[in-house]
Design brief:
about 725 residues, 7-stranded antiparallel beta sheet, 6-stranded mixed beta sheet, 38 strands
């Protein structure tokens, strides 16, 4: 859209009346734009999401994280179906510069960059006189000026005018915070990001009172864990020192504070990601990380991209699809199992449609539409699969899965399974207990909510798990992976492990001595010190714990008791160090540091569970191609009895198959006098040995050129002869 005044009443900033005449300017407008398929129309049925930056005017990387995302959407809308779907079905609002006076003042005092003005330019607040041209201590910290948890009763703001966190004399005393308040209350935002710099972390409500629970912590945890899956920023309400009177606390709101304020009343999930650590961070120079070198700006913005995308998804009608069917399908009739996990704030029904792709599927019956799902609920549903009786072991079974929310398709993907492949290892803890594994440290079989049967395998019996833990669970025997097109490791798992610090990882080895991490669907990169050192409740030893102790890919965080099916692919592209290994081994590694941080999530740090671990060897039997039917038109002549019969061979004009055609049929093969004059359309069907078929049509023209046979009349005798 064309940029517009974010204030419903056309309110503006103070402007600047300090310094020389050339350094002064009139009040400014705080602008917003809307990115959507109809950007100039507010479409009532589309979820709304807010992105802001520069509430602190020295945090330029925050501004660029927004701008980069905005341009990415615009530049890829016409070529990327995912971007188009996101834009077409949501309204994304951007306020790139919440504090335009502060930004302009930085341009004034440091034209080449490096200005440290954080606050707005309220006149008379630490401006040191009308002739000042370099002061960066002026004004009010706008992100300490929102009403919820505002004031001296809470920690994290200052009553000193020159302080960077000076909160002002009253909540919403500033035009910029008033403009954002009025703008937010005029909309119906579901989620919001207030981009900041320069730590690598995401604090979420309540910054003003970190020990206060909102009841939305699990939603916050899932959202933040998803946003930071790859950049691995630390997140939580307690990672930074308290900061009160901040925008995201007010947007979410909650119980009345000491001032009787309950926030926006809209219960918006909002958060404040910080970006930029490990770039320009020379504190002595006065630049710090607020002014990264230009070559680092794009890298910082790219680390924010998943945050921006996930925030839009979580604001909308969004559910995640989980494939819960292992690849060894053993019977002609079975169920394909899927998990539908609602994550979006906007209510919706979800429809899963499963359709055959490979010809060896006779039918698939899709599950019913899922209605009334609550946020974070996962429902496991089944689609009934029936295979053709002619299917052979190792044949590829392929089907298409589409998940829609009643407005648009969220996912569309083809899954591939195999019929009765070779299974090198199948572990059932109900029967085998731990006999298929060798352990160091305590591992156990648990009867607490297994995936199947009565038991799963767990890292130790204690809940919460023990700190300073170090234990492994290794396959008791080796496995020959030679002569395989690919190998699939598949198992069901759930976990509740202190995120960013403790971890479980799955490793492989070709000799039992040297181990390498395996990359799967659900594990993720380890964290680094630069994404953990914002966490004041942890020590520097813990900041580096994953980086110092893992091999690169870990399981951590809280699955909230939801099972997933992990898949590790071993082929020329994935985990290739194990290709053709004659003596492969696999092991789980569990490590925990010295303490678990307290959080208000549902987490109880109960550890890592897995069930039904299998090693599946894939040597795919490629089904033959279906036959190709080719027809020809023919003319037939009625016989002396007025009848004609044809065979499929007369219609067939060179039908073919890559193996052999074993049968041919016609829907019409007899004709009589009634067919004379109008060509008859007949259908030829040809079949191969796998039951695959093809059809074609031809016309049969019926003619009558044979005289009827006159029966011989015997000599008659009698009185009339």
């Amino acid at each position: 859209s064309v940029k517009a005044n974010a204030s419903p009443t056309n309110q503006q900033t103070f402007g600047n009346n300090t310094g020389t005449v050339a350094q002064r300017w009139s009040p400014q407008t705080v602008y917003y734009v809307r990115i959507s398929d109809n950007p100039d129309v507010d479409e009532a049925n589309e979820p709304e999401v807010l992105y802001t930056s520069m509430i602190h005017s020295r945090e330029v990387a925050a501004l660029m994280s927004n701008m980069f995302f905005m341009w990415y959407l615009l530049e890829n809308y016409s070529t990327d179906p995912a971007v188009k779907s996101l834009v077409d079905n949501n309204e994304l609002y951007f306020v790139p510069v919440v504090n335009p006076d502060g930004l302009r003042w930085n341009q004034t005092i440091a034209p080449s960059g490096g200005g440290m003005q954080r606050k707005n330019l309220r006149p008379g607040v630490a401006d040191n006189g009308a002739t000042n041209t370099t002061n960066a201590s002026r004004g009010i910290d706008l992100n300490r000026n929102f009403a919820y948890l505002w004031g001296p009763s809470y920690t994290g703001s200052s009553g000193t005018q020159s302080s960077d966190s000076y909160r002002g004399t009253a909540a919403f005393s500033e035009p910029e915070s008033q403009i954002m308040r009025d703008f937010i209350l005029s909309r119906n935002f579901e989620t919001a990001l207030w981009h900041h710099t320069f730590a690598n972390g995401i604090p979420h409500p309540y910054g003003g009172l970190p020990t206060q629970a909102s009841g939305r912590e699990n939603e916050m945890h899932k959202w933040h864990e998803d946003m930071t899956r790859y950049n691995r920023y630390v997140s939580g309400a307690t990672i930074f020192p308290a900061a009160n009177g901040i925008a995201d606390d007010w947007m979410l709101g909650g119980p009345a504070d000491v001032n009787g304020n309950t926030g926006s009343g809209q219960q918006i999930l909002a958060t404040t990601p910080e970006h930029g650590h490990n770039n320009e961070r020379n504190i002595a120079s006065g630049f710090s990380g607020f002014w990264p070198t230009p070559t680092n700006i794009t890298a910082i913005a790219k680390r924010a991209m998943r945050m921006n995308f996930v925030t839009a998804y979580y604001g909308g009608r969004y559910a995640r699809l989980h494939d819960l069917t292992q690849s060894n399908i053993t019977s002609l009739s079975s169920n394909l199992t899927f998990g539908i996990e609602r994550l979006g704030q906007t209510a919706s029904n979800f429809t899963l449609t499963v359709t055959p792709v490979s010809a060896n599927i006779t039918s698939i019956t899709s599950p019913a539409t899922q209605t009334g799902m609550s946020i974070l609920e996962q429902r496991n549903v089944n689609a009934a699969l029936v295979l053709n009786p002619t299917i052979q072991p190792n044949e590829r079974i392929e089907y298409k899965v589409s998940l829609s929310n009643g407005f648009h398709v969220i996912y569309e993907v083809n899954f591939v399974k195999y019929y009765q492949p070779t299974v090198l290892f199948s572990d059932n803890p109900d029967v085998n207990l731990l006999s298929n594994w060798t352990s160091t440290g305590l591992w156990t079989t648990s009867t607490a909510s297994p995936w199947s049967g009565t038991r799963s395998i767990k890292d130790g019996a204690a809940i919460p798990y023990a700190t300073n833990g170090n234990r492994t669970l290794t396959t008791a025997t080796t496995y020959d992976l030679r002569n395989s097109e690919k190998i699939l490791l598949q198992f069901y798992a759930k976990w509740d492990i202190e995120r960013n610090f403790d971890f479980v990882e799955l490793q492989g080895s070709t000799n039992g001595t040297t181990w390498f991490t395996l990359c799967g669907r659900y594990n993720k990169p380890e964290t680094a010190t630069t994404t953990n050192d914002a966490h004041g409740a942890k020590t520097a030893t813990s900041w580096a714990f994953q980086g110092n102790n893992s091999s690169g890919r870990v399981y951590d965080g809280d699955q909230m008791d939801k099972w997933v099916m992990e898949e590790i692919v071993i082929d020329a592209t994935n985990n290739s160090f194990l290709v053709n290994a004659a003596n492969a081994r696999f092991r789980f590694v569990f490590r925990s540091d010295a303490n678990n941080r307290p959080e208000s999530y549902s987490t109880n740090y109960d550890g890592f569970y897995f069930d039904d671990f299998r090693i599946i060897q894939v040597n795919e039997l490629v089904p033959s191609a279906p036959p190709m039917a080719v027809c020809q038109n023919i003319t037939v002549t009625l016989d002396v009895n007025g009848q004609a019969t044809i065979t499929p061979a007369q219609i067939d004009n060179g039908s073919s198959d890559d193996v052999a055609i074993v049968n041919r049929t016609l829907d019409i093969n007899t004709f009589d006098c009634s067919n004379i004059g109008t060509p008859v359309t007949v259908t030829l069907t040809v079949f191969d040995a796998e039951g695959q078929s093809d059809t074609c049509t031809a016309t049969v023209t019926v003619q009558d050129t044979t005289a009827p046979a006159v029966p011989a009349i015997a000599d008659a005798t009698g009185e009339c002869s």
